Here is the input.
Amino acid sequence: MKDGLQKIWKLQGSFEIMDDDNSFYIVKFDQVVDEEKVITFGPWLIFYHCLVVSHWSPKFASPNAKVERTVIWVHFPGLNLVYCDESFLLAMASVIGRPIKVDTNTLKLERNICKGM
Here is the structure.
């Protein structure tokens, strides 16, 4: 798992990862900038699973922990290029929840939900 995370995170420093046997992992980063990158720039997909990432809290107890909210990636297939505008996409996403951001690849029209029709 660590090798896979190193490939997708592309961090400046290194990190340690520990499995707690309850489907949770604790990650300790060498650099604060790497921690903020991982927290901020998700969602992360590893081994075809979405990795939910959050700051650790002293109150965390994995046997009782529940994921109460998560980030999802919304795909609008067949959307005309004229609608591939950040404000429009955020407005569309707000119908199902609170949008966070439009990914960079979509904004640059590189690999995205916007394919010319």
In short: The longest strand covers residues 15-19. Residues 5 and 15 are 10 Å apart (CA to CA). Strands lie at 15-19, 25-29, 44-46, 49-51. The chain has two domains: 2-55, 72-117.
